[in-house]
């Protein structure tokens, strides 16, 4: 049986004491679901695992349901394979190699996002911050970091949770690590 490596990206866990998912518990849960080579990165909801299942949406739905059953709350989950993560990294419109990881972020979306959704964002008002859309991803350059980014606040409002789109952001260091870990 052939297996493929995936990254699971959980949205909004372990932030401010809300939606606590211990990484040991997440690893245990993924293993119980039949996945192999499970490991987690940081405390912010990044897991890498292997699976014979090739349907990313089915894997995400399975993990989302298992988190609900185990921890008692709903969490947005995206599952992405190495090829997609590598393509996102390769398509970065900003000079990632010359930036600090905290200055560059990728927001991953559960589905393609139309540029019209962000048409009302007056990007020039937030310079030197910038954003660009990619394949189910938004790249954000925030030279002072995400915590101080005014543009990030505006972009978040353009993708409200009620839209049904799962969106979760990772800094560039995490993106690079997930590419590396899913390559093996």
Structure description:
InterPro entries: DUF1697. β6 (130-134) and β7 (137-141) form a beta hairpin. The chain has two domains: 4-83, Alpha-Beta Plaits (2-Layer Sandwich); 91-171, Alpha-Beta Plaits. 30% of the residues lie in helices and 24% in strands. The strands form two sheets. Strands 2-3-1-4 form a four-stranded antiparallel sheet, with helices on both faces. A four-stranded antiparallel sheet has the order 6-7-5-8. The protein has five helices and eight strands. By secondary structure, the protein is α+β, with helices and mostly antiparallel strands.
Order of helices and strands: EHEEHEHEEEHEH
Q: Overall 3D geometry?
A: globular
What is the CATH level 1 assignment of the largest domain?
Alpha Beta
Number of helices: 5
Just name the CATH architecture of the largest domain.
2-Layer Sandwich
Total number of beta strands:
8
Contiguous uncertain segments of 5+ residues? none
Indicate the CATH topology of the largest domain. Answer: Alpha-Beta Plaits
Structural class: alpha+beta
Q: How many domain regions?
A: 2
* Percent of sequence in beta strands: 15-25%
Give the termini separation: 17 Å
Largest sheet: 4 strands, antiparallel
Helix content class:
25-40%
What integer value in Å does the Rg equal? 16 Å
CATH superfamily of the largest domain: Reverse transcriptase/Diguanylate cyclase domain
Pfam family, one: DUF1697
């Amino acid at each position: 049986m052939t297996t493929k490596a995936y990254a699971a990206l959980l949205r909004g866990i372990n932030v401010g004491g809300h939606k606590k998912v211990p990484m040991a518990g997440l690893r245990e849960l993924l293993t119980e679901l039949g996945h192999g080579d499970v490991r987690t990165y940081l405390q912010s909801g990044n897991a890498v695992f292997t699976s014979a299942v090739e349907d990313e949406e089915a894997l995400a739905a399975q993990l989302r349901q298992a988190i609900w059953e185990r921890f008692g709350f709903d969490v947005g989950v995206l599952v992405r394979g190495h090829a997609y993560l590598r393509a996102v990294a390769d398509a970065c419109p900003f000079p990632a190699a010359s930036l600090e990881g905290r200055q560059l972020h990728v927001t991953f979306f559960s589905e393609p996002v139309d540029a019209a959704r962000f048409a009302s964002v007056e990007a020039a008002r937030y310079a030197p911050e910038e954003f660009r859309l990619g394949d189910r991803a938004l790249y954000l350059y925030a030279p002072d970091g995400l915590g101080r980014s005014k543009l990030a606040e505006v972009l978040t409002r353009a993708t409200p949770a009620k839209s049904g789109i799962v969106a979760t952001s990772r800094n560039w260091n995490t993106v690079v690590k997930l590419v590396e870990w899913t390559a093996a």
